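Worked example 3 (structure in, sequence out).
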């Protein structure tokens, strides 16, 4: 009887197990960037939101000014308020209840505990991604009863996901969740305005979600029409305006949201190097030298060459999606657009690859070759994460991954995987015009 719930609700069981797995990692460690998250949350609570993006950060950890969009800033602030309340509550219990373990006070006051609170939104976003992919597979492969649970498991128990969210404390899972939810709603319902709200939340969670934008616009255009595209853009602009408004202090209030996003978030994203620890094409070319992305290569700035190479792969994908905007092609195009951006854009970080993996799962379940590619890419992504932040530090593993032979072999495998997926998409998408 006690196990009947788990038998009747297998997805809930997987989500609970996925959460428990992540909960065990929350307090072990956190990446350097979480220090900035803590600082931004603390300062938003202490000094308020107005002028936040113009205010020099007091506790600086390689970044002078905040460069994350509003959604994570709100979440960091909520996390810091929770931290303050839990400290007060624990102290009250400590005074009122003699048996209360006093040493727990020191743990709750610790920076590690505060960091764990700020990781929680990413942990829940991981669970949300698993849920969304479960729904996608249930819709697209209705006869395969176990496939949705397998799909969810490929996220919930995939180290490439839970290491990034519950150990590192990065926020990549949050924009992926909102983007996945937006595409599910726009593909399988008629609520395109709600999809636009969700997509705006993805853009406002992290600027890396910008690469999804052309795919979203094509889907709305092909399923509805130009008027609906204008309405979608308008509602997204409204969401931008509303969520940025609390940060406004001076200047043009109408344009503040967009100029701040462009100048304070989008343009300053990432370190100014050709590759920032990413296992991509430019790392292979530069061999991890910190070369500014405006330096010349073959007579042209690396950055411009990156734009050209990325467009060379993205434009055919978008054209074929426009010709055949079936839900399967939407998922494949999302994976390829992000994959091409990761490989060929400059200033890319290793964790940006995570956006590729969820949208490959559907094809991994349909095609054994793609399934093995998915497994390899998950391993390569995990190795890339460990390459930059070796926690827990296992010296033989560190030496193996830091070896130039190993790194270049992983990059070669990633490039081959991209070529395989790209050519498969081109080959499989050649069908007449269609509407969703």
């Amino acid at each position: 009887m006690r196990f009947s719930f788990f038998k009747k609700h297998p997805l809930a069981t997987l989500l609970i197990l996925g959460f428990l797995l992540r909960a065990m990692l929350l307090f072990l460690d956190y990446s350097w960037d979480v220090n900035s998250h803590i600082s931004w949350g603390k300062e938003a609570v202490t000094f308020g939101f107005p002028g936040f993006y113009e205010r020099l950060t007091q506790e600086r950890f390689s970044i002078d000014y905040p460069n994350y969009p509003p959604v994570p800033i709100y979440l960091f602030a909520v996390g810091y308020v929770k931290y303050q309340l839990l400290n007060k509550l624990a102290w009250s219990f400590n005074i009122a209840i003699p048996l209360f373990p006093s040493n727990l006070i020191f743990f709750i006051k610790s920076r590690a505990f505060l960091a764990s609170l700020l990781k929680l939104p990413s942990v829940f976003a991981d669970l949300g991604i698993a849920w969304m992919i479960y729904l996608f597979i249930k819709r697209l492969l209705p006869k395969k009863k176990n496939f949705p649970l397998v799909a969810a498991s490929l996220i919930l128990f995939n180290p490439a996901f839970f290491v990034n969210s519950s150990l590192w404390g990065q926020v990549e899972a949050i924009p992926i969740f909102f983007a996945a939810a937006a595409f599910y709603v726009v593909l399988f319902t008629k609520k395109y305005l709600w999809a636009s709200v969700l997509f705006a939340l993805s853009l406002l969670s992290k600027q890396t979600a910008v690469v999804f934008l052309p795919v979203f616009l094509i889907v709305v255009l092909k399923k509805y029409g130009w008027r609906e595209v204008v309405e979608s853009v308008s509602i997204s602009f409204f969401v931008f305006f509303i969520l940025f408004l609390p940060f406004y202090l001076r200047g043009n209030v109408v344009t503040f949201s967009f100029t701040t996003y462009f100048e304070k978030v989008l343009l300053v994203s990432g370190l100014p190097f050709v590759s920032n620890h990413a296992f991509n094409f430019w790392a292979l070319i530069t061999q991890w030298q910190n070369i500014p992305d405006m330096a010349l290569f073959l007579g042209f700035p690396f950055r411009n060459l990156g734009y050209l190479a990325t467009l060379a792969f993205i434009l055919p994908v978008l054209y074929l999606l426009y010709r055949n905007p079936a839900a399967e092609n939407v998922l494949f195009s999302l994976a390829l657009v992000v994959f091409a951006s990761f490989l060929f854009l400059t200033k890319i970080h290793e964790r940006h690859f995570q956006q590729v993996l969820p949208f490959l799962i559907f094809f991994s379940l349909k095609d054994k070759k793609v399934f093995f590619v998915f497994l390899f890419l998950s391993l390569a992504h995990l190795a890339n994460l460990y390459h930059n932040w070796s926690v827990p530090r296992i010296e033989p593993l560190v030496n193996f991954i830091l070896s130039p032979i190993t790194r270049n072999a992983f990059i070669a495998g990633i490039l081959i995987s991209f070529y395989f997926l790209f050519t498969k998409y081109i080959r499989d998408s050649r069908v007449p015009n269609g509407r969703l």
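Notes: The CA atoms of residues 21 and 157 lie 8 Å apart. The beta strands are 275-276, 296-297, 300-301, 348-349.
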